[in-house]
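With this grant's support, we have settled on a layout for protein records. One resulting record is reproduced below.
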Amino acid sequence: MTTQTDHTEISMLISRFFRVLDERKFEGDWARSYFTDDVRTVTPIGASDGIEAMEHTNEALERYARTQHIASDVLVDVEAVSGRARASWNALMTHVHHDVTLQQRDKDANPLFTVGGYYEAELRGMREGWRISRMSVRVIWTTGEPPVLPPEIQPRPVA
C-alpha cells in the first residue's frame, strides 16, 4: 500500500531529477542522490548499466543549448514489505538546439526538438530515501529534428 509520504517523496525525487537535468547541476556524486549503484536505464539510443553511466548525462545534454523536462501525473505503487516501488509519469521534454546546429541545417530549421512520452521506473527504499534502480522512457511523439549523434552513440538494440 502506498502512503502519501511515499508518493510525495518519490514524486519529489522525480521532479528534482528533472530539474537537475535542466539546470545541469552535475557536481560530485550527484547521480547517487537519485539512483542506486546498479541502476539500469533504457532510452531510445540504448541501455546503460550502473551509476557510472548516469555520470555521463551531462554529455548528452551538452548537445543542446537548453532543455526543459516536465513530469506530470506521477503514479506510484509501493510494496511496503519489500521496500520497493514502481512509478510512472508523463513527460514533455523540450530541447533547444545550439545556434551552430541550426546554421548547419536550412534557414527554416526548427530550433526545438520536442519529445512527448512517459517514464516507467522501479525504486528501492534506501537509508537515504527512495532511489531509482530501473528507469525507461517510452517515446510517443516527437517534433523537430534530433541532434546529429556521433557514430559511437548511434541508436543500438536494447538487450
